[in-house]
Amino acid sequence: MKEFNVGLLGFGTIGAGVIRVFQNNAEVMEQRLGARLTLKRVADLDITTDRGVKVDAGVLTTDAMQVLTDPEIDVVIELIGGYEPARSFVLKAIEQGKHVVTANKALLAKHGEEILSAAAAKGVDVMFEASVGGGIPVLSAIKENLCANNFRCIFGILNGTCNYILTRMTNEGADFASVLKDAQAKGYAEADPTFDVEGVDTAHKLAILVSLCFGTRIDLENISIEGISKITPLDIQFAKEFGYKIKLLAIGKRENGQVEARVHPTMIPVNYPLADVDGVFNAVRLVGDFVGPVMLYGQGAGMDATASAVMGDVMAISRNQLAGGGRRTPAMGYLPEAMVKLPVKPMRDIVSQYYLRFTALDKPGVVAKISGILGRYGIGIASMIQPERKQREAVPIVIMTHEATEAVINDALAEIDQLDVVREPSHFIRIESEME
């Protein structure tokens, strides 16, 4: 029986999950593949800490080069994370003629073009299903089952930490800081949660999705990123009153030769399927011109779910080799020569509905002043909540607008914030009511 040897770089949580798949599901993989997968070498700087799985001492090494230069290893799994030394190791594996599987979304978002170009020149496969959505097979769905479609838009809940925090804030009325602290204690958030809660992790994943769906190269610097740290229980309560939930959304759209690529807190109607994605779960909603809307949902992170996606890629590469060659499917879904560089629409030109919250003195004429300024900028008011009078203290005034450009909203809010009756900087959240 044909045998494929695999080398693993990184023996952390996900690496331990990969080893568990090898140990628990070797038989089912062999039955599905018609070949044997063997874990030949595992490299990590720390090979003594107990990860909850037993590995023969002869398989473990602290020298990554023993994986990268071993002529018997066919596939290298990179689970180190970050930019370096992951980038150098991946390029070395490719140089040695080895296929690569990675879960490293940050590496792909920043250095993907370099890595994929090197792989194409060497004639090897690079696969990265686990980089977006953990165990959800969203990338293979785009590249394979849905590849006859032109995609119009992507909406994704792609970070379990943020979704867990917003779910707790919604269900319990708790504030951001207290939920974050609890999430860290439970292991749902990192000690330094900045990449997660400020939207950077989600932006890395959106960069990959935009490239796959729209056939365009996009730089991370061109994605507008806003996190959830400024969301308050007050915003969540008002969202409920209007019939919305707040989610951190990754949004990609293609229209009129431009793409939108943005990550930010977004209000979505409570009766939309994405609104029901709670806790640490992820989901991606795609809209194709023929298939229409499709939503994929599941565990977006974690040892077992991510290891499942990693090993699915290893098996896909092995199937390609059994069939006589690799590179059956373009890594980014489009042939490299068909990839283009579409312009990214500036945020100031984005058109959306908006939730606006003002903190102003509770006195006659305040609402008229605010609505008057909005009217002069052509911003229509769809609905409003104004709490009862409370002896002239500062109170929230909440307005839901009709569609407007972000530039107009920002200009109007800048003028409103100068009013002597406004006590705090105004706050807005974008609304997505059309996901088709």
From TrEMBL:
- One GO biological process term: threonine biosynthetic process
Q: What is its EC number?
A: 1.1.1.3
- Substrates-to-products reaction catalysed: L-homoserine + NADP(+) = L-aspartate 4-semialdehyde + NADPH + H(+)
Residues that, per the record, bind NADP(+)? L9, G10, F11, G12, T13, I14, G15, A16
Which Pfam families did the record assign?
ACT, Homoserine_dh, NAD_binding_3
Q: What InterPro entries has UniProt attached to this entry?
A: ACT-like_dom_sf, ACT_dom, Asp/hSer_DH_NAD-bd, HDH, HDH_cat, HDH_CS, NAD(P)-bd_dom_sf
| Needed cofactors | a metal cation
UniProt enzyme class: oxidoreductase
**Positions contributing to L-homoserine binding:** E190
* Chain positions recorded as NADPH binding sites: K105
Q: In which pathway does it act?
A: Amino-acid biosynthesis; L-threonine biosynthesis; L-threonine from L-aspartate: step 3/5; Amino-acid biosynthesis; L-methionine biosynthesis via de novo pathway; L-homoserine from L-aspartate: step 3/3
- Is Membrane among this UniProt entry's keywords? no
Cite the entry's keywords alphabetically.
Answer: Amino-acid biosynthesis, Metal-binding, Methionine biosynthesis, NAD, NADP, Oxidoreductase, Threonine biosynthesis
**Catalytic-site annotation from UniProt:** K205
Which PANTHER family does this UniProt record tie to the protein?
HOMOSERINE DEHYDROGENASE
As for family, the record states:
Belongs to the homoserine dehydrogenase family.
Protein's UniProt name: Homoserine dehydrogenase
Top-level taxonomy: Bacteria, Pseudomonadati, Thermodesulfobacteriota, Desulfuromonadia, Desulfuromonadales
